[in-house]
Amino acid sequence: MLRNLLWKLLATFALVQFNPALAQAFPVKPVRLIVTYPPGGSSDLMARVFGQKLSEVWGQQVLIESKPGAAGSIGMEFAARQPADGYTFVVGNIGPAAVNPLLSKVPYSMAKDFVPVSLISTGPNVLVVNSAWQVKSLDEVLAYARANPGKLSYGTSGPGSLSHLSTEMLKNLTKVNMVEIPYKGGVLAVQDLLGQQIQLIFSDALPAMQHIRAGKLRGLCATGAERFALLSDLPTCDSVVPGLVAVNWWGVFYPTGVPKALVDKFHADMVKVIRDPVVKGKFADLGVEAVSSTPEQFGAFIRVEMDKYTRLIKTANIKVNP
Q1: Can you give the pLDDT at residue 316?
Q2: How many CA atoms lie within 13 A of 294 on its CB side?
Q3: Beta strands 217-222 and 62-66, pairing class
Q4: Same domain as 94, residue 188
Q5: Domain span at residue 182?
Q6: Is there a domain that residue 322 lies in?
Q7: Is 321 a domain residue?
Q8: pLDDT confidence bin for 206, thresholds 50/70/90
Q9: CA distance 86 to 92
Q10: Would you state the pLDDT for residue 3?
């Protein structure tokens, strides 16, 4: 951490005389985009969609680097240690950016190590089971769990992920006893659900939808406040268990120390990309809604989310392994 701090101090000193006019020429070389979850998942595929569009806007490559593990914390730590020259940014979601720091000691500080640039997308999770299991609703899952306490296993994308929080919320609201099996990403959990190593997961829509449509998985409900447009036949989980509402979100961050002129330039380009109809359509295909915000709005949004999940963690007495 000391080496990281010294590096950031040196980088900041070197950029004190940064000429805002240089931001208009940014970037003049390839830019690195850090993804905190494994390839093939929602974070990775969204990054590839807007990364390609940014490449077109900038006339420079956007190089995707996957740094999965610890529910996204490994990728966030890696991004925090990168030079504050504007040429590395990270896409982080609710887990590593808002909840992991509430559950355990992480090797980064969102307040000190990152500059929020813009919210880019939101979307619900979908409760899915293997089609070979003859449950047809959340009510039936709960009935099974109550009749078989401790025998129902569920996958998560790791501590602090929305899949983890959604299930903890379900357990807190219904007082059922189930066993968590954490994974490095939702794609890996869905693979084990297909193989019947686990019984259910609150999954990002993307990894689950193709298997639902193929008949291999069965969707039971979605965690949004309203019905999910891409799977509109599913009820909301809230309609079965009142209060079971949890929405995933993703945003982009710079390491602290990037000059404001570069942050402003990147933000303007990012918003242009997110509002592009092609990007909006591709995001919809991934099961999320493309959105944007100012850096200030994004920072305030994160604080509200942290307050919400601080209350859940306290009320439900959620703990993770150290």
Answers
A1: 83
A2: 3
A3: unpaired
A4: no
A5: 124-239
A6: no
A7: no
A8: confident
A9: 16
A10: 52
What does 72-103 look like in DSSP terms, one character per residue?
GHHHHHHHHTS-SSSSEEEEEEHIIIIIHHHH
Tokens (6 digits) for 313:
């963690």
Of residues 320 and 247, the one with the higher pLDDT is: 247
Is 115 inside any structural domain?
yes
142: domain CATH number is: 3.40.190.10
For residue range 252-285, list pLDDT tens digits in order.
999 999 999 999 999 999 999 999 999 999 999 8
Q: What is the sign of the dihedral through the CA atoms of 294, 299, 302 and 304?
A: negative
Q: Which residues, other chains included, contact 304 with Cβ-Cβ below 8 Å and sequence gap of 6+?
A: none
Q: Which of 177, 211, 239 is the last residue of a domain?
A: 239
CA 5/CA 3 separation, integer angstroms: 5
- 204, 43 Cβ separation under 8 angstroms: no
> How many domains in the chain?
2
What tens digit of pLDDT does each residue of 217-251 get?
999 999 999 998 888 899 999 999 999 999 999 99
Contact 209, 216 (CB under 8 A): no
- Alpha-carbon span 290 to 1, nearest angstrom: 35
Note whether residue 220 is domain-resident: yes
Q: Are 247 and 223 in contact (CB under 8 A)?
A: yes
CATH number at residue 52: 3.40.190.150
H-helix segments, the chain: 2-14, 20-23, 42-58, 73-80, 94, 100-103, 110-113, 138-147, 162-174, 186-194, 205-213, 260-274, 277-285, 295-316
